[in-house]
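If you are new to this repository, start here. Below is one unmodified record pulled from the training split, so you can see the exact layout before writing a loader.
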Amino acid sequence: MRERWFGATGKRVPELAVEGDPLVPLAEALVLDDVSDDAKLREAHAAGTPVVVRAGSAEQIVAALRRPEVASVLVPESHAELLQLDLRELTYG
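And here is the target side for that same chain:
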């Protein structure tokens, strides 16, 4: 399981998890439905706030993980198969 830093908390979390996974504490994070708001992402990053993004497709996951501000991407339980994606293949071809 690949991990990322959870903002400035000093913790590491899974880069990709099913929504509700206790390893990704949402109470401490800015939770977004996409990565379209650059200002929010930069502001959270500058403040050390962890950013978690919800995604329901491979394209949304790749877009979110391309952003260095994003600590973790959550997929719905109904799409848990997305955890099996080959992210290297999707990213680098």
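Two things worth knowing about this chain: Helices lie at 38-47, 58-65, 87-92. Residues 57 and 82 are 7 Å apart (CA to CA).
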